[in-house]
């Protein structure tokens, strides 16, 4: 019973793709790679070289330099919420301003061999001010730290709210004040919080570090409820912000900070020492002596597997073979609900569960000899992933959802089979799971299927999207047909014989389709926080290495069974009749 029957999965790329298909698919992804890399670079540059040089002239590092200095040598940096506010402009009296990344950097990286969440104000964007959605971006990073119980590090250099847009960031349930509630929740859960204050720390920026377990201040740093300029105006006093809230005050008088350090470098070194004092990772113990190993087939090949046409299918087993260690996998319930694939593999030496949509035609279990389209949830598939999700939660196995779904089965037969009830059961399961769940939007994320497959509304720890992901209730053409259904015949062609009316209907349908296609752009989703990060398929394995190991880092806060007593063994015996 203790044996986890991992078996080889996948095959050499040349056995399932012709050379011209590899070239075609690779060229398709290469275009998306170029766009993604260019946009990442633009966000990382903040407001540009001029503002970077201005920061360095003050003897300070930029936010990205601080992150780089903080992390372990050669440690990966996995960004979160890079494209918040992407494409959004703010009108300031006829001058338009952008807020790259909402003026804050949030990443997962390793410090002292521990995964941590780092939240750093981008001091090259309006002195690290909080823009609309800055607060939500910070809170999302805090939620990740809370979900995984891994340390949260604040690199604070924040001049408070970007006041011209205060109405969009000050009030509301997730406005700037909600950051401090997240600070408190992290503290209540015992999650280490460490803050380095490197410069301006005004109003809300002053509150953010205070609840942290350790607060370090450089000689250039100050924390104030109101800056000197405001006090001068209100009280006619000649003061400086450093004088009223610098390290001399907050380290030696108010005790709002713990230690003063000379500069950025010393502050970062002190934070590293604090991280070293936190509890070590439980991941080596949970590996059970099994060393991490790469997949047998390179993860880089994932950028050549997906065809340009989202309606063309691919083999999800070949995707999994390029994600799991040694390309070894235990597929459960393979003869049930064949539109779904579920099973267990190791990532970075640690067990995790996978749930994936199967594409292409699949056998119809209700009609012998017939097939039905994959990428859709049918009764058996829903029941299968519900039970697998429950079992992974019972066993404490992190769960990864690979979405490429067009939605639920529809029609009279589907309703008679009770798909609403089965779907609700799945939603209940995913809403109450305590094991860490991560969602990846591979291509299609449509309709209620997006919800049922642990989409962002069901609070996975993180949701990733590829550049070819498409989030929508339905495709643009389908929605255009629905919107103009009264004007169409049974073949969905325009019914009118009048040339002018026909032209108007066709134009209207094309306009609807174009707008919906634009709404499905993953960058738009990322800009408005409908997905957490955009990554290439070939980057998925490194992200999963981070997320799965971080899931096992903290110890004692959730159920983690040893494989000998997994519920999955029982499920396998009962479903397949063998041990």
How does this model look, in words?
By secondary structure, the chain is an alpha/beta fold. It folds into three domains: about 240 residues, 2-enoyl-CoA Hydratase, Chain A, domain 1 (Alpha-Beta Complex), CATH 3.90.226; about 190 residues, 2-enoyl-CoA Hydratase, Chain A, domain 1, CATH 3.90.226.10; about 45 residues, no CATH class. The protein is about 35% helix and about 20% strand. It has 21 helices and 22 strands. The strands form five sheets. Strands 1, 11, 12, 13, 17, 19, 20, 21 and 22 form a nine-stranded mixed sheet that branches. It has a seven-stranded mixed sheet with strand order 2-5-6-7-8-9-10, sandwiched between helices. Strands 3-4 form a two-stranded antiparallel ribbon. Strand 3 and strand 4 form a beta hairpin. Helix 13 packs parallel to helix 15. The longest helix is centred in the N-terminal third of the chain and has 26 residues. The protein is globular. The termini are close together.
Brief description of this entry?
This protein has 579 residues and is of the alpha/beta class.
């Amino acid at each position: 019973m203790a044996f986890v029957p991992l078996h080889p999965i996948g095959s050499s790329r040349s056995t399932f793709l012709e050379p011209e298909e590899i070239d075609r698919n690779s060229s398709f992804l290469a275009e998306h790679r170029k766009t993604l890399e260019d946009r990442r670079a633009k966000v990382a540059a903040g407001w540009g070289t001029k503002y970077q040089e201005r920061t360095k002239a003050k003897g300070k590092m930029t936010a990205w330099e601080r992150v780089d200095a903080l992390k372990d040598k050669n440690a990966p940096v996995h960004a979160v919420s890079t494209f918040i506010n992407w494409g959004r402009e703010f009108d300031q009296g006829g001058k338009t301003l952008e807020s790259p990344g909402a003026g804050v950097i949030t990443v997962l990286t390793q410090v002292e061999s521990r995964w941590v969440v780092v939240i750093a104000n981008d001091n090259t964007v309006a002195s690290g001010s909080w823009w609309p959605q800055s607060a939500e971006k910070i809170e999302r990073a805090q939620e990740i730290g809370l979900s995984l119980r891994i340390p949260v590090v604040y690199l604070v250099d924040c001049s408070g709210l970007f006041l011209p847009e205060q109405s969009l960031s000050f009030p509301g349930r997730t406005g700037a004040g909600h950051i401090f509630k997240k600070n408190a929740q992290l503290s209540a859960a015992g999650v280490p919080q460490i803050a380095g204050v490197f410069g301006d720390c005004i109003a809300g920026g002053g509150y953010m570090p205070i609840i942290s377990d350790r607060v370090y201040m450089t000689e250039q740093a100050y924390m104030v409820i109101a800056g000197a300029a405001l006090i001068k105006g209100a009280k006619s006093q000649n003061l400086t912000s450093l004088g009223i809230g610098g390290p001399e005050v907050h380290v030696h008088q108010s005790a709002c900070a713990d230690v003063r350090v000379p500069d950025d470098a010393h502050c970062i070194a002190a934070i590293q020492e604090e991280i070293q004092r936190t509890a070590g990772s439980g991941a080596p113990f949970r590996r059970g002596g099994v060393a991490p190993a790469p997949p047998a087939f390179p993860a880089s090949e994932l950028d050549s597997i997906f065809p340009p046409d989202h309606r063309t299918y691919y083999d999800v087993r070949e995707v999994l073979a390029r994600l799991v260690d040694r390309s070894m996998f235990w597929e459960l319930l393979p003869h049930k609900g064949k539109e779904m694939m579920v099973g267990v593999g190791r990532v970075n030496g640690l067990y995790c569960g996978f749930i994936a949509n199967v594409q292409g035609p699949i056998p119809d279990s209700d009609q012998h000899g017939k097939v039905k389209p994959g990428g859709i949830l049918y009764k058996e598939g829903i029941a299968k992933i519900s039970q697998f999700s429950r079992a992974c939660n019972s066993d404490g196995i992190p769960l990864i959802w690979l979405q490429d779904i067009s939605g639920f089965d529809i029609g009279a037969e589907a309703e008679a089979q009770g798909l609403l009830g089965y779907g609700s059961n799945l939603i209940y399961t995913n809403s109450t799971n305590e094991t860490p769940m991560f969602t990846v939007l591979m291509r299609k994320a449509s309709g209620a299927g997006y919800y049922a497959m642990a989409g962002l509304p069901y609070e996975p720890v993180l949701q990733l999207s590829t550049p070819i992901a498409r989030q929508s209730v339905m495709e643009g053409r389908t929605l255009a047909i629905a919107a103009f259904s009264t004007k169409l015949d049974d073949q969905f062609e325009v019914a009118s014989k009048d040339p002018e009316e026909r032209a108007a209907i066709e134009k209207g349908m094309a306009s609807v389709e174009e707008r919906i296609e634009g709404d499905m752009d993953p960058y738009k989703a990322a800009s408005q926080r409908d997905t957490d990060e955009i990554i290439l398929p070939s980057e998925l394995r490194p992200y999963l290495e981070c997320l799965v190991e971080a899931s096992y880092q903290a110890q004692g806060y959730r159920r983690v069974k040893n494989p000998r007593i997994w519920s999955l063994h029982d499920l396998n015996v009962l479903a397949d009749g063998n041990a």
